[in-house]
């Protein structure tokens, strides 16, 4: 452990260990990051950098896995075989994204079991967006269009995040998310050009998913405790508000092309800034959902706990098989 000194600070009545890093090592690390070099698993890194990455990457991985549930709910009810095959492939992709991300986090010295236990115990977060219900088929297209669209907006810059394994995982994830976004937009396009009932269904889905999609980018910058340090260490390359603005600017013309209306009376083009002004998301709702009060939060965690319990025999069998192989090699 490259910790020079451990002090104890007091936060309320809870003692919190404070790691004081070797100033020379810290300065060398910061210079590397400032020069846009990737940090690799065996390189020295400050403890707070490692912890922040474990927090963000594991939250990201949990989001991909929990994010399979709202769409998985519709695989059996997709309207055509083509739509079913696309949705099935998309949900499988999300599982793959979760696996790359868990592997990237494991290079920081945390095990997959530890991350899973943190999720199941309600200690680790996952994206607020997956705590909302998927009520109609139009929600499938809208999730692809808006949720994958927001995910790409956030993840393209993460291809240049300072931690090498996370950056490399993002390259493939972004390619797949781009397909997800397009299939979603195409599905909404068909509904928006369909019968009045289909168009109304697409509008209703946009009305319900718009604000939660804007919340995916995190709290406003002035209420984001992690942004300043993460920007400095180039874990994040853009702030929450910068990405939210870019997402609005790209998505509004897409809604116009569909003939759908963004549910925001304050939305208007601002010539001077070259972007849209838009209304304020309900941040009270966001913080309530972050703290576990989302409409589907209980169902989501119950599903993950059941999956863990039902998978126990698979884990046991894999371990027994590995033990047998080891014993055979040793003999
Ligand atoms: N939901 O100080 P900040 C996808 C938490 S992938 C829940 O601003 P930070 C693919 C935050 O953790 C979607 N919690 O935090 C897909 C922090 O918690 P703390 C996931 C949130 O980390 C599509 C606290 O609030 N993507 O959708 C959220 O600097 C379709 C304070 O916030 C990623 O994870 C939230 N929305 O910035 C799958 C991308 N926002 O400190 C299936 C990587 C904030 O108490 C179907 N992550 N919090 O532990 C990031 O870029 C960042 O972590 C942010 C938050 C931008 C999400």
Write the layout of secondary structure elements.
Layout: E1 3-11, E2 14-21, H1 23-34, H2 47-66, H3 68-72, H4 81-106, H5 112-120, H6 138-158, H7 164-192, H8 196-215, H9 227-232, H10 240-258, E3 268-270, E4 275-277, H11 283-293, H12 297-310, H13 312-330
Antiparallel strand pairs: 1-2, 3-4
The site of Phenylacetyl coenzyme A has 29 residues, from helix 2, helix 6 and helix 9.
List descriptors.
single chain; 331 residues; mainly alpha; two-stranded antiparallel ribbon; 13 helices; 4 strands; 64% helix; globular; disordered N terminus; binds Phenylacetyl coenzyme A
Ligands and ions found:
Phenylacetyl coenzyme A
Radius of gyration: 22 Å
Mean pLDDT over the full residue set: 94
Which spans have pLDDT < 50 for at least 5 consecutive residues?
A: 1-14
How many DSSP-defined strands? 4
| Main sheet makeup | 2 strands, antiparallel
* N/C terminus separation: 37 Å
Record the strand order, biggest sheet. Answer: 1-2
Structural class: mainly alpha
Total number of helices: 13
SSE order, as H and E? EEHHHHHHHHHHEEHHH
- Helix share of residues? 55-70%
Spatial shape = globular
Strand content: 5-15%
């Amino acid at each position: 452990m490259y910790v020079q000194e451990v002090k104890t600070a007091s936060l309320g009545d809870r003692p919190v260990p404070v790691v004081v890093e070797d100033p020379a090592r810290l300065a060398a690390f910061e210079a590397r990051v400032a020069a846009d070099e990737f940090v690799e698993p065996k390189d020295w890194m400050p403890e707070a950098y490692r912890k922040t990455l474990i927090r963000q990457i594991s939250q990201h991985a949990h989001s991909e896995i929990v994010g399979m549930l709202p769409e998985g709910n519709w695989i059996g009810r997709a309207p055509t075989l083509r739509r079913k095959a696309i949705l099935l492939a998309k949900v499988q992709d999300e599982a793959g994204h979760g696996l790359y991300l868990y592997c990237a986090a494991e290079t920081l010295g945390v095990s997959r079991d530890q991350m899973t236990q943190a999720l199941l115990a309600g200690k680790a977060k996952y994206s607020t967006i997956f705590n909302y219900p998927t009520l109609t088929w139009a929600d499938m297209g809208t999730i692809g269009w808006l949720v994958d669209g927001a995910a790409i907006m956030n993840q393209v810059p993460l291809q240049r995040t300072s931690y090498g394994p996370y950056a490399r995982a993002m390259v493939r994830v972004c390619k797949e998310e781009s397909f997800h976004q397009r299939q979603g937009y195409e599905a909404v396009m068909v509904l928006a050009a369909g019968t009045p009932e289909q168009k109304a269904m697409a509008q209703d889905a946009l009305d319900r998913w718009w604000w939660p999609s804007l919340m995916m980018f995190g709290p406003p910058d002035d209420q984001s405790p992690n942004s300043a340090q993460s920007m400095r260490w180039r874990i994040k390359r853009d702030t929450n508000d910068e990405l939210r603005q870019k997402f609005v600017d790209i998505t509004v013309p897409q809604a116009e092309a569909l003939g759908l209306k963004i549910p925001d009376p304050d939305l208007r083009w601002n010539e001077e800034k070259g972007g849209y002004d838009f209304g304020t998301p309900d941040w009270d709702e966001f913080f309530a959902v972050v703290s576990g009060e989302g409409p589907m939060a209980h169902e989501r965690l119950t599903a993950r706990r059941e999956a863990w319990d039902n998978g126990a025999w698979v884990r046991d069998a894999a371990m027994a098989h590995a033990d047998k192989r080891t014993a055979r090699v040793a003999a």
